[in-house]
Amino acid sequence: MTHTKVITDLDMERILVPYGIKMVSYKMLSGGSANTNYLIRTEDNAFVLTICDEKSIEETGKLASLLEYLKQHKFSTSELIQTTTEALTTTWNSKPVMLKGFIEGYIAKDISEDLLLYLGKELAQLHQIKAPDFIPREIAFGLQHFDDVKVYAPDSSFYKWLKTTQHYIENHINSDLPKALIHSDIFNSNIIVDQERKQATIMDFEEACYYYRVFDIGMMIIGTCSNKTTINLDKVANLLKGYRQEIQLLEIEKKALKAFTIYAATATAYWRHQNFNYVNFNPEMKNRYLEMKNLADYVMNLPDNFLFED
Fold first, then answer.
1. In sequence order, what DSSP letters do the residues of 193-253 get, joined into one string?
2. For residue 269, what are the CA distances in angstroms to 81, 205, 264?
3. Is the pLDDT of residue 1 over 50?
4. Share of the chain above pLDDT 70, in %
5. Cβ–Cβ < 8 Å for 296, 266
6. C-alpha dihedral over 87, 88, 93, 94, to 10 degrees?
7. Which domains does the chain have, with CATH numbers?
8. pTM of the predicted model as reported, rounded to 2 decimal places
Protein backbone atom coordinates (compact mmCIF):
# COMPACT_ATOMS: atom_id res chain seq x y z
CA MET A 1 0.00 0.00 0.00
CA THR A 2 1.30 3.46 -0.94
CA HIS A 3 -0.06 6.25 1.18
CA THR A 4 -0.26 9.80 -0.06
CA LYS A 5 2.74 11.85 0.98
CA VAL A 6 2.14 15.01 2.99
CA ILE A 7 0.97 17.52 0.43
CA THR A 8 1.89 21.18 0.13
CA ASP A 9 -0.33 24.26 0.18
CA LEU A 10 0.07 24.51 -3.58
CA ASP A 11 -0.91 20.85 -4.03
CA MET A 12 -4.07 21.42 -2.03
CA GLU A 13 -4.99 24.55 -3.96
CA ARG A 14 -4.63 22.62 -7.23
CA ILE A 15 -6.72 19.72 -5.93
CA LEU A 16 -9.52 22.10 -5.00
CA VAL A 17 -9.55 24.01 -8.30
CA PRO A 18 -12.24 21.75 -9.90
CA TYR A 19 -14.53 22.47 -6.95
CA GLY A 20 -14.20 26.25 -7.10
CA ILE A 21 -13.42 26.30 -3.39
CA LYS A 22 -11.11 28.82 -1.75
CA MET A 23 -9.67 27.27 1.38
CA VAL A 24 -8.69 29.12 4.53
CA SER A 25 -6.95 26.17 6.20
CA TYR A 26 -6.47 22.40 6.01
CA LYS A 27 -5.11 19.61 8.18
CA MET A 28 -4.63 15.88 7.88
CA LEU A 29 -7.12 13.75 9.80
CA SER A 30 -6.11 10.63 11.71
CA GLY A 31 -7.52 7.20 10.94
CA GLY A 32 -8.34 5.52 7.65
CA SER A 33 -5.96 2.76 6.56
CA ALA A 34 -7.04 2.84 2.92
CA ASN A 35 -7.39 6.61 2.48
CA THR A 36 -5.68 9.88 3.33
CA ASN A 37 -8.18 12.44 4.65
CA TYR A 38 -7.92 16.19 5.13
CA LEU A 39 -10.23 18.63 6.87
CA ILE A 40 -10.66 21.66 4.61
CA ARG A 41 -12.06 24.90 5.99
CA THR A 42 -13.32 27.87 4.00
CA GLU A 43 -14.76 31.09 5.40
CA ASP A 44 -18.25 29.57 5.55
CA ASN A 45 -17.95 25.78 5.42
CA ALA A 46 -15.91 22.70 6.23
CA PHE A 47 -15.22 19.70 4.01
CA VAL A 48 -13.40 16.38 4.12
CA LEU A 49 -11.10 15.69 1.20
CA THR A 50 -10.41 11.97 0.67
CA ILE A 51 -7.51 10.75 -1.44
CA CYS A 52 -8.10 7.04 -2.10
CA ASP A 53 -4.79 5.22 -1.72
CA GLU A 54 -6.06 1.71 -2.41
CA LYS A 55 -9.18 2.07 -4.57
CA SER A 56 -9.06 2.30 -8.34
CA ILE A 57 -10.76 5.13 -10.17
CA GLU A 58 -13.58 2.73 -11.08
CA GLU A 59 -14.03 1.52 -7.48
CA THR A 60 -14.05 5.10 -6.18
CA GLY A 61 -16.60 6.02 -8.83
CA LYS A 62 -18.91 3.25 -7.60
CA LEU A 63 -18.54 4.39 -3.99
CA ALA A 64 -19.30 7.96 -5.02
CA SER A 65 -22.34 6.76 -6.96
CA LEU A 66 -23.55 4.89 -3.88
CA LEU A 67 -23.23 7.98 -1.69
CA GLU A 68 -25.18 9.95 -4.27
CA TYR A 69 -27.77 7.15 -4.43
CA LEU A 70 -28.19 7.23 -0.63
CA LYS A 71 -28.63 11.00 -0.75
CA GLN A 72 -31.36 10.60 -3.37
CA HIS A 73 -33.10 8.14 -1.06
CA LYS A 74 -32.78 10.56 1.86
CA PHE A 75 -30.46 8.39 3.94
CA SER A 76 -28.27 10.53 6.16
CA THR A 77 -24.55 9.91 5.63
CA SER A 78 -21.56 11.64 4.03
CA GLU A 79 -22.70 14.00 1.27
CA LEU A 80 -20.52 14.33 -1.79
CA ILE A 81 -19.60 17.76 -3.12
CA GLN A 82 -19.64 17.83 -6.91
CA THR A 83 -17.15 19.74 -9.03
CA THR A 84 -18.21 22.82 -10.96
CA THR A 85 -18.82 20.47 -13.92
CA GLU A 86 -20.94 18.14 -11.72
CA ALA A 87 -18.35 15.35 -11.52
CA LEU A 88 -18.51 13.17 -8.39
CA THR A 89 -14.77 12.46 -8.26
CA THR A 90 -11.49 13.89 -9.50
CA THR A 91 -7.89 12.64 -9.55
CA TRP A 92 -4.58 13.86 -8.15
CA ASN A 93 -1.27 12.16 -8.89
CA SER A 94 -3.27 9.37 -10.56
CA LYS A 95 -5.21 8.74 -7.33
CA PRO A 96 -9.00 9.15 -7.04
CA VAL A 97 -10.25 12.08 -4.97
CA MET A 98 -13.63 12.76 -3.32
CA LEU A 99 -14.80 15.87 -1.47
CA LYS A 100 -17.54 15.50 1.16
CA GLY A 101 -19.33 17.81 3.51
CA PHE A 102 -17.90 17.75 7.03
CA ILE A 103 -20.29 16.34 9.64
CA GLU A 104 -19.89 18.02 13.01
CA GLY A 105 -19.61 15.59 15.90
CA TYR A 106 -17.26 13.01 17.31
CA ILE A 107 -16.47 9.29 17.34
CA ALA A 108 -17.69 7.81 20.61
CA LYS A 109 -15.77 4.96 22.23
CA ASP A 110 -18.97 4.01 24.02
CA ILE A 111 -22.39 4.43 22.37
CA SER A 112 -25.32 4.83 24.76
CA GLU A 113 -28.37 2.58 24.79
CA ASP A 114 -30.56 5.48 23.65
CA LEU A 115 -28.33 6.13 20.67
CA LEU A 116 -28.38 2.44 19.79
CA LEU A 117 -32.17 2.62 19.64
CA TYR A 118 -31.76 5.49 17.15
CA LEU A 119 -29.06 3.65 15.18
CA GLY A 120 -31.17 0.49 15.02
CA LYS A 121 -33.84 2.49 13.22
CA GLU A 122 -31.22 4.00 10.91
CA LEU A 123 -29.95 0.54 10.02
CA ALA A 124 -33.46 -0.69 9.24
CA GLN A 125 -34.07 2.36 7.06
CA LEU A 126 -30.91 1.56 5.12
CA HIS A 127 -32.11 -2.02 4.61
CA GLN A 128 -35.35 -0.74 3.08
CA ILE A 129 -33.53 1.08 0.27
CA LYS A 130 -33.40 -1.03 -2.88
CA ALA A 131 -29.83 -2.18 -3.53
CA PRO A 132 -28.38 -0.63 -6.69
CA ASP A 133 -27.11 -3.02 -9.34
CA PHE A 134 -23.52 -1.77 -9.20
CA ILE A 135 -22.67 -2.88 -5.64
CA PRO A 136 -21.07 -6.30 -4.90
CA ARG A 137 -23.26 -9.33 -4.24
CA GLU A 138 -21.12 -10.68 -1.39
CA ILE A 139 -19.08 -9.29 1.48
CA ALA A 140 -15.44 -8.66 0.71
CA PHE A 141 -14.14 -10.69 3.68
CA GLY A 142 -16.72 -13.45 3.86
CA LEU A 143 -16.69 -17.25 4.08
CA GLN A 144 -15.68 -17.69 0.45
CA HIS A 145 -12.29 -16.13 1.25
CA PHE A 146 -11.40 -17.99 4.46
CA ASP A 147 -9.28 -20.57 2.62
CA ASP A 148 -6.92 -17.75 1.62
CA VAL A 149 -5.29 -18.29 5.02
CA LYS A 150 -3.85 -21.54 3.59
CA VAL A 151 -1.54 -19.40 1.46
CA TYR A 152 0.40 -18.04 4.43
CA ALA A 153 -0.65 -20.00 7.54
CA PRO A 154 -1.97 -23.44 6.50
CA ASP A 155 -0.96 -25.24 9.70
CA SER A 156 -1.83 -22.48 12.14
CA SER A 157 -4.25 -22.90 15.02
CA PHE A 158 -6.10 -19.88 13.64
CA TYR A 159 -6.82 -21.60 10.32
CA LYS A 160 -8.09 -24.72 12.11
CA TRP A 161 -10.35 -22.54 14.28
CA LEU A 162 -11.52 -20.61 11.23
CA LYS A 163 -12.59 -23.78 9.40
CA THR A 164 -14.40 -25.17 12.46
CA THR A 165 -16.28 -21.90 12.94
CA GLN A 166 -17.02 -21.70 9.21
CA HIS A 167 -18.72 -25.10 9.37
CA TYR A 168 -20.97 -23.87 12.21
CA ILE A 169 -21.88 -20.70 10.30
CA GLU A 170 -22.64 -22.53 7.06
CA ASN A 171 -25.08 -24.81 8.89
CA HIS A 172 -27.11 -21.73 9.80
CA ILE A 173 -27.22 -20.03 6.38
CA ASN A 174 -30.65 -20.38 4.82
CA SER A 175 -31.17 -19.22 1.24
CA ASP A 176 -34.58 -17.86 2.30
CA LEU A 177 -32.98 -15.26 4.58
CA PRO A 178 -33.79 -11.78 3.23
CA LYS A 179 -31.03 -9.79 1.58
CA ALA A 180 -30.68 -6.02 1.43
CA LEU A 181 -28.31 -3.16 0.83
CA ILE A 182 -26.01 -3.52 3.85
CA HIS A 183 -23.11 -1.50 5.23
CA SER A 184 -21.25 -4.61 6.55
CA ASP A 185 -18.67 -2.72 8.65
CA ILE A 186 -20.53 -0.77 11.35
CA PHE A 187 -18.13 -0.16 14.22
CA ASN A 188 -17.99 2.86 16.55
CA SER A 189 -15.22 4.27 14.36
CA ASN A 190 -17.67 4.50 11.44
CA ILE A 191 -20.28 6.44 13.41
CA ILE A 192 -20.33 10.19 14.05
CA VAL A 193 -22.29 11.24 17.14
CA ASP A 194 -23.66 14.79 17.34
CA GLN A 195 -22.65 17.07 20.20
CA GLU A 196 -26.05 16.68 21.93
CA ARG A 197 -25.64 12.89 21.81
CA LYS A 198 -29.16 12.51 20.45
CA GLN A 199 -28.40 11.55 16.86
CA ALA A 200 -25.67 9.66 15.05
CA THR A 201 -24.63 9.22 11.44
CA ILE A 202 -23.42 5.96 9.90
CA MET A 203 -20.40 6.67 7.71
CA ASP A 204 -17.87 4.96 5.42
CA PHE A 205 -19.76 2.75 2.99
CA GLU A 206 -16.54 1.30 1.55
CA GLU A 207 -17.68 -2.31 2.11
CA ALA A 208 -21.37 -1.91 1.24
CA CYS A 209 -22.93 -4.80 -0.66
CA TYR A 210 -26.13 -6.76 -1.28
CA TYR A 211 -26.15 -9.51 1.33
CA TYR A 212 -28.13 -11.01 4.21
CA ARG A 213 -29.45 -8.21 6.39
CA VAL A 214 -28.88 -10.29 9.56
CA PHE A 215 -25.15 -10.11 8.81
CA ASP A 216 -25.36 -6.32 9.13
CA ILE A 217 -27.24 -6.61 12.44
CA GLY A 218 -24.66 -9.11 13.71
CA MET A 219 -21.83 -6.81 12.63
CA MET A 220 -23.44 -3.85 14.38
CA ILE A 221 -23.80 -5.93 17.55
CA ILE A 222 -20.11 -6.80 17.40
CA GLY A 223 -19.10 -3.28 16.44
CA THR A 224 -21.18 -1.21 18.86
CA CYS A 225 -22.43 -3.45 21.69
CA SER A 226 -19.24 -5.23 22.77
CA ASN A 227 -16.52 -4.23 25.21
CA LYS A 228 -13.86 -6.31 23.39
CA THR A 229 -14.44 -9.41 25.49
CA THR A 230 -18.22 -9.63 26.06
CA ILE A 231 -21.53 -8.40 24.62
CA ASN A 232 -23.66 -5.84 26.47
CA LEU A 233 -27.10 -7.42 26.15
CA ASP A 234 -28.93 -4.26 27.23
CA LYS A 235 -27.34 -2.41 24.32
CA VAL A 236 -28.26 -5.25 21.96
CA ALA A 237 -31.86 -5.10 23.17
CA ASN A 238 -32.08 -1.39 22.35
CA LEU A 239 -30.43 -1.86 18.96
CA LEU A 240 -32.92 -4.60 18.07
CA LYS A 241 -35.84 -2.59 19.49
CA GLY A 242 -34.99 0.32 17.23
CA TYR A 243 -34.56 -1.95 14.21
CA ARG A 244 -37.87 -3.69 14.83
CA GLN A 245 -39.70 -0.37 14.93
CA GLU A 246 -38.99 -0.26 11.19
CA ILE A 247 -38.65 -3.94 10.18
CA GLN A 248 -40.12 -7.00 11.83
CA LEU A 249 -37.56 -9.77 11.67
CA LEU A 250 -38.66 -13.12 10.30
CA GLU A 251 -38.45 -16.18 12.54
CA ILE A 252 -35.66 -17.61 10.38
CA GLU A 253 -33.72 -14.37 10.93
CA LYS A 254 -34.16 -14.59 14.69
CA LYS A 255 -32.88 -18.17 14.63
CA ALA A 256 -29.93 -17.23 12.42
CA LEU A 257 -28.84 -14.03 14.19
CA LYS A 258 -26.58 -15.72 16.75
CA ALA A 259 -24.72 -17.51 13.95
CA PHE A 260 -24.45 -14.31 11.92
CA THR A 261 -23.15 -12.41 14.94
CA ILE A 262 -20.46 -15.09 15.17
CA TYR A 263 -19.99 -14.75 11.39
CA ALA A 264 -19.42 -10.99 11.72
CA ALA A 265 -16.78 -11.45 14.42
CA THR A 266 -15.14 -14.33 12.55
CA ALA A 267 -15.00 -12.43 9.25
CA THR A 268 -13.43 -9.45 11.02
CA ALA A 269 -10.91 -11.73 12.74
CA TYR A 270 -10.06 -13.25 9.36
CA TRP A 271 -9.53 -9.81 7.78
CA ARG A 272 -7.32 -8.61 10.64
CA HIS A 273 -5.28 -11.82 10.67
CA GLN A 274 -4.65 -11.70 6.93
CA ASN A 275 -4.05 -7.97 6.73
CA PHE A 276 -1.69 -7.59 9.69
CA ASN A 277 0.11 -10.94 9.35
CA TYR A 278 0.46 -11.18 5.59
CA VAL A 279 -0.80 -8.38 3.31
CA ASN A 280 0.44 -5.42 5.36
CA PHE A 281 2.51 -7.13 8.05
CA ASN A 282 2.56 -5.10 11.23
CA PRO A 283 4.24 -6.62 14.31
CA GLU A 284 2.35 -4.24 16.58
CA MET A 285 -1.03 -5.27 15.13
CA LYS A 286 -0.44 -8.93 14.27
CA ASN A 287 -2.42 -10.20 17.28
CA ARG A 288 -5.30 -7.75 16.92
CA TYR A 289 -7.41 -10.51 15.35
CA LEU A 290 -7.60 -12.25 18.73
CA GLU A 291 -10.12 -9.71 20.03
CA MET A 292 -12.62 -10.76 17.36
CA LYS A 293 -11.76 -14.45 17.60
CA ASN A 294 -12.39 -14.40 21.35
CA LEU A 295 -15.62 -12.47 20.84
CA ALA A 296 -16.82 -15.06 18.33
CA ASP A 297 -16.06 -17.80 20.86
CA TYR A 298 -17.88 -15.86 23.57
CA VAL A 299 -21.04 -15.59 21.45
CA MET A 300 -20.75 -19.26 20.48
CA ASN A 301 -21.03 -20.22 24.16
CA LEU A 302 -24.17 -18.13 24.77
CA PRO A 303 -27.64 -19.75 24.65
CA ASP A 304 -29.12 -19.99 21.15
CA ASN A 305 -31.95 -17.61 22.07
CA PHE A 306 -29.87 -15.04 23.95
CA LEU A 307 -30.78 -12.26 21.51
CA PHE A 308 -34.54 -12.72 21.77
CA GLU A 309 -36.77 -13.42 24.73
CA ASP A 310 -40.01 -13.36 22.79
1. E-TTSS-EEE---TT-EEEEHHHHHHHHHHHHSB-SSSB-HHHHHHHHHHHHTT-PPPHHH
2. 35, 20, 9
3. no
4. 97
5. yes
6. -90
7. 9-101 (3.30.200.20), 113-300 (3.90.1200.10)
8. 0.94
